[in-house]
Write a structure and sequence with these properties.
Layout lengths: L2 E19 L2 E15 L2 E6 L13 H17 L7 H8 L6 H19 L3 H5 L5 E3 L1 E4 L5 H14 L3 E5 L6 H11 L5 E4 L9 H4 L10 E2 L7 H8 L6 E3 L6 H9 L5 E4 L1 H4 L2 H13 L4 E3 L6 H10 L32 E3 L12 H7 E8 L3
Parallel strand pairs: 5-6, 6-7, 7-8, 8-9, 9-10, 10-11
Antiparallel strand pairs: 1-2, 1-13, 2-3, 4-12
Helix pairs in contact: 1-3, 2-3, 5-6, 9-11
Amino acid sequence: MKIELAELRRIALPLVTPFRTSFGTESNRDILLVRLRGTDGDGWGECVAMSEPLYSSEYVDGAHAVVRDHLLPRLMALTTDLTAEAVGPAFQAVKGHPMAKSVVEMAVLDLELSGRGESFGHYLGAVRDAVPAGVSVGIMGSVPELLGAVAHYLAQGYARIKLKIEPGWDLDPVRAVRERFGDEVALQVDANAAYTLADARHLAQLDPFGLLLIEQPLPEEDVAGHAALAAQIRTPVCLDESITSAAAAFDAIQRGACSIVNVKAGRVGGYLEAKRVHDVCAALGVPVWCGGMLETGLGRAANVALAALPNFSLPGDTSASERYWRHDLTPPFVLEDGCLRVPTGPGLGVRPDPDRLAEVTVSVEEIAWSV
């Protein structure tokens, strides 16, 4: 596999509606795309880092610099054939920056698989041709507004509803959704680390609502606190930000800090490590689901392929394109009977539309590949 040029492209995409969580509100996405141009085709990667270091310590300007100044030179220095399996070891000396590492690995994997006509799903071990799609509903200005949004998504056929919560926006909205739509709706909540262990008695008041799970209620480093909380509430605890690797997943499960895991490739450094997280959880009998980071069709294609692995037994945040974008970069992912189809074409199975890509591009930086 020969690479001639690396392209770091920044695009700006407005969200259909602002998306509010406990750590902030996003109205527009500043996205870094990595394109590796080879002799026989292209490989695309999408970085999920946000504009500011709010969800994690990474942010898109920093990821751009790390990719350009530290990761790509290490790939160019490889003396053996470049494959996705070689990316992790090549980056090992660079501490942290999993989202930056993930976007490069994704581009390498797309290029590699496209070259041999193999899909992401087949390579990762997908066992389904479609995956159930859930939807994440941000914090709203009022309960009636929330109920209207949930009604809209249920009418579209989403298999699961996730409500973002924070102190002051938790019990009342959950109660209202349960009272309006009934116990049959698959419902979960996501705190994005907005609480502390001192809130355990308050969070226990969510137990009567029969939630699938509460996601990341405490700060990411507080694994012990999550174990203590899990012992005090009936709602299953799911970890997101705390799961930074397969080893971290094993540790958290062994310590009783969670009984469900949210897998995000960008958060753990790439799709190969995400598969390892899946495998560790499967071996320990812990179900997983695929989280989302407001991806375009490129990242969504990879996520849908990942979510088709056997231990992804809960609907993920793999929503249809129209949930976030009026016009996606790729042909849109469409909800069909509550599911999204797993792409079967080579590599990611999708490519950006050149005209749409040109419309949303803010800058392009080209780096000649030297060996």
